[in-house]
């Protein structure tokens, strides 16, 4: 039977794995000599976790979906997220683990930038696949973190460790950019579907019935997380998925404004706006004119 474990502290995860706690707010360890996590367990994280897999490690799930999680891949977990563990009978712990609590990075540059690493919110089929050279870079940074934690803590320790974590994350940004490129055919297909679905959304009555479309709505159609979907679209086009939606709205609004038989409020409703004043603000922000001014100007 599946059971849940709320992990409020890094030390709780260390205890599950049977590893020594070198620091109450951060932990780095090799899984080879650690215990297997309890099978059929849902882990509720209250801290950040980064896993580098090596060999066969059973299944890891985010929500109800299996991660695209093979040898030499990385998975990122942020506070508030849930992972499910499903291990095989011959499961053996392998790979590397980095855990750090948000309190550890308070006051550092990493704390200001951590939300920029959108892959912490990626979902199923979105793990980072590393080449052998890329794995060596990540392993070297894990080793540096482990070395620093093994030394006596002094006034420099926090900045050195947080800077090393930030360097590791920046390398992962680069590796994800490479992964988006190497999966270009798949990404182009998703982009094409996105454009078609966006057109269908406004040509049908979905906007009137459901409201303005969200990035999450289109991400769900291709079974991706909103962050991964948004990053994929931006890598392909230079614009975020939200910017694509906004641009589509503006172009449609400009076309429909010329239909003088419809009021501005009616046009706003057809496009999915609940309140006409929100439509007016968006239109003026993007064109420099109110809808009425734009209609009269043309």
TrEMBL record:
<feature type="domain" description="HTH araC/xylS-type">
    <location>
        <begin position="196"/>
        <end position="297"/>
    </location>
</feature>
<keyword id="KW-0238">DNA-binding</keyword>
<dbReference type="GO" id="GO:0043565">
    <property type="term" value="F:sequence-specific DNA binding"/>
</dbReference>
<dbReference type="InterPro" id="IPR018060">
    <property type="entry name" value="HTH_AraC"/>
</dbReference>
<keyword id="KW-0805">Transcription regulation</keyword>
<dbReference type="InterPro" id="IPR020449">
    <property type="entry name" value="Tscrpt_reg_AraC-type_HTH"/>
</dbReference>
<dbReference type="InterPro" id="IPR009057">
    <property type="entry name" value="Homeodomain-like_sf"/>
</dbReference>
<dbReference type="GO" id="GO:0003700">
    <property type="term" value="F:DNA-binding transcription factor activity"/>
</dbReference>
<dbReference type="Pfam" id="PF12833">
    <property type="entry name" value="HTH_18"/>
</dbReference>
<keyword id="KW-0804">Transcription</keyword>
<protein>
    <submittedName>
        <fullName>Transcriptional regulator, AraC family</fullName>
    </submittedName>
</protein>
């Amino acid at each position: 039977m599946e059971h849940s474990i709320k992990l409020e502290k890094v030390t709780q995860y260390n205890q599950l794995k049977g590893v020594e706690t070198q620091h109450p707010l951060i932990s780095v360890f090799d899984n080879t000599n650690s215990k297997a996590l309890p099978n059929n367990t849902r882990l509720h994280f209250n801290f950040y976790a980064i896993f580098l897999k090596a060999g066969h490690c059973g299944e890891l799930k985010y929500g109800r979906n299996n991660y695209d999680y093979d040898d030499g891949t990385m998975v990122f977990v942020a506070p508030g997220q849930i992972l499910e563990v499903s291990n095989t009978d011959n499961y053996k712990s392998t790979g590397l683990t980095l855990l750090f609590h948000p309190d550890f990075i308070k006051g550092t540059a990493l704390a200001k930038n951590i939300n920029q690493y959108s892959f912490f919110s990626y979902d199923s089929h979105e793990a980072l696949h590393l080449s052998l050279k890329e794995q060596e870079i990540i392993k070297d940074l894990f080793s540096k973190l482990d070395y620093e934690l093994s030394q006596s803590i002094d006034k420099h320790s926090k900045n050195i460790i947080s800077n090393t974590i930030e360097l590791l994350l920046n390398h992962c940004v680069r590796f994800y950019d490479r992964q988006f490129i190497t999966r270009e055919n798949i990404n182009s297909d998703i982009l094409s579907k996105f454009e078609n679905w966006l057109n269908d959304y406004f040509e049908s009555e979905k906007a009137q019935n459901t409201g303005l479309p969200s990035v999450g709505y289109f991400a769900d159609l291709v079974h991706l997380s909103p962050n991964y979907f948004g990053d994929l679209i931006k890598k392909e086009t230079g614009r975020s998925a939200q910017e694509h939606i906004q641009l589509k709205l503006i172009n449609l609004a400009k076309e429909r404004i010329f239909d003088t038989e419809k009021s501005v409020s009616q046009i706003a409703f057809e496009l999915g706006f609940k309140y006409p004043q929100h439509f007016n603000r968006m239109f003026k922000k993007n064109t420099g004119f109110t809808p009425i001014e734009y209609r009269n100007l043309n």
